Amino acid sequence: MLKVSVIVPLYNTGRYIEECAPSLLEQSLPADEYEVIYVDDGSTDDTLARVQKLADEHPNVRVFSQPNSGWPGRPRNVGMQHARGEYIQFVDHDDTLGPEALERLYEHASRNRADVVLGKMSTNMARPRRLFRHTVDTCTIEHDELMKSMSPHKMLRRAFVEEHGLRFPEGPWILEDLLFISAAYLAAERISILADYPCYYWMKRDDGGNNTRHRFGGNQDFFGNLRTVIRQIKEGTEPGDLQDRLLHRNYHVEILSRAREPEILNVDAQEQRPRFEEARRVALEEFPPGVRDALPAVSRLRAELLERGDFDAAHALAQRTKEVQVRTQVSGLCWEQGLLVADVRLDLLRGDGEPLELVERDGDRLLDPWLLEGVPGVEEWQVPDPFRHAYAELVVKDRDREDWWYPEGDLEVRVEPLAEGRSQVVAVGKLRLDPQALAGGRPLERGAHDVWAYVQLLGVDRLVRLSGDGTPGETTAAGPALVRATEDSARLAVPYWTKRGQLALDLDERLRRLTDDLAQAGNPWRSSGQGVPGDPMDLPLPFTATGTTPDGAPGSPAVLPVRVRIGDGAKPPVLAAELVTGAAQPVLRLTAVRTKAKVEPGRHAVRLLTPQGAKKPGEPIAYAVVLDGRIVRLEGPAYVAPAGRRLLDAVNDNSGVRKARRVLGKAVRRAGRK
């Protein structure tokens, strides 16, 4: 039996097949262990011919065609009917898989005997899901975060699908994903989550036509289908806490979105009011009271206005809530044992820049009156539990690849006092960013990595970049670091503030040049050693060496091979060198101190050429003192030699003295031969 069958529904896909297909056909799983099943839903362009060509070239590709059904449900069902793999993986034709996705997902599924496996998704169209913060071997539908991931892009055991008769609704049936996946969750005995590898890439298309549903068209009964999904969940669970928690997602996303920003503010009222009224009917008729009662304060107020049918008040509340912003504060940024660490504080600010407050009155906590200004019929609103559904977390985004990763540690939500009778909800904690382990236990890739914060406080949720008080466009006070990569090698890491003052980390000089930082920092030291051939010459550098060996011990020095250019002549010599971690800071180490090219005696600029950085050297990071073609020492740009040293250098640099030394040396050698 094949291990995996990949099912891809198609309709007028065109060139996007060529973008998706390589990720499916170049998997690390051997080609004879999986198959790709394309099901064309009556395309009117050259889609069928394109995939048939792929099938002709690849034995593990099969193609099926059918009359147009108008939606991806029927093609997916046809794919399942023809699947031969132990597991089924659904993929949309404009998405891609990570190179090792099938191998890793199958191994995780097989080891845990899972019915359903959720692979980590990377996307630029939705915020990161904390569901993928940690890999989970097994769980059930009681795992609270599962209902946050309702797309069909999962791996399911084929025998499990057949046993429970799981099928997508066919024809133009919007929310078909929710119906199929919620049925799978309800039936599954073992659900696994793979969070340490980006399995599925869901990216915005350049023509704006993302998502299979946009190509399958048709008229859909959104709220009627939503009722079907809700009833399926209610039929599969007993009334009570679990059922309420499972229905929370549908109420929060499909219902309350009609009463909150951005939809209620951006859609014309003539269109939005009917949606608002239909959402109200579904809320009142389908959801148990425990669902709305468990909402945080602002969401519960939205629900109250929706179920009351007060569109104007809901619109006014949305306008007010839209003005709420998140303030991020970063302090104590530094490197500790290979980790970039900082203290972080997040809070909510009103539109006037003041903290969003809680007002204490007669033993009750009330929402900030500012938030309720202009909301008709609402003079005050109680906050019985400020911690309800409240959380905050830090996430790091790989800017080039759209991968999201979670640093160590959690942020703690607190209520802090302000003036008498007033307080605010805040989140505080520590950023602990490990460049060598953040990517699912693996090193971050070369490139820029942005630090974000997601907060959900009082029912107000925001995803924001982590900003601080550093100088925009400059390296942070923590400075560049030489981070240990393996026991004996290192890589460059530069934390910096973007032009908008947001925190980012550049690895291996994707955007930031170490030479620029070293040149700007200056260097007051001189090298050790006397320029004796074969002996190392070390110049301390003004940045950080950090990290330990894989087992946590300090270990031997880690090395990054570099090159240095000596002087500014037409063909200046370039020597091999090393950046070496030391006990407290790295050093620039030269071993070959005699240049092959002729270099005039004196003090010459030293420019650094790093492996990943620009080939054109920047400003001098040091100066080399050269005598008789030999580098006798290195000096930082800010090094000031003592008076005796300067006198000796002046004597050595005198051309007459050098000529006399050469003549005297020759005479001594001739006398020795006699």
Secondary structure layout plus pairing:
Blueprint: E1 2-10, H1 16-25, E2 34-41, H2 47-57, E3 61-66, H3 73-82, E4 85-90, E5 96-97, H4 101-112, E6 116-123, E7 136-139, E8 155-157, H5 158-163, H6 176-187, E9 191-202, H7 213-216, H8 222-235, H9 241-255, H10 263-266, H11 269-286, H12 289-293, H13 297-308, H14 311-322, E10 325-336, E11 339-349, E12 358-361, E13 364-367, H15 369-372, E14 391-398, E15 403-405, E16 412-417, E17 422-433, E18 447-457, E19 460-465, E20 481-484, E21 490-497, E22 503-507, H16 514-521, E23 537-540, E24 544-546, E25 559-566, E26 574-580, E27 587-590, E28 602-609, E29 622-627, E30 630-635, H17 643-653, H18 655-673
Helix pairs in contact: 6-8, 8-9, 8-11
Notable traits:
674 residues; Spore Coat Polysaccharide Biosynthesis Protein SpsA, Chain A; 5 domains; globular
How would you describe this structure to a colleague?
Helix 6 (176-187) runs parallel beside helix 8 (222-235), helix 8 (222-235) runs antiparallel to helix 9 and helix 8 packs parallel to helix 11. A hairpin with a 7-residue loop joins strand 25 and strand 26. The protein has 5 domains: 1-220, Spore Coat Polysaccharide Biosynthesis Protein SpsA, Chain A, CATH 3.90.550.10; 221-313, no CATH class; 325-484; 515-640, no CATH class; 642-674. Mean pLDDT is 90; it is low at 210-219. It has 674 residues and is of the alpha+beta class.
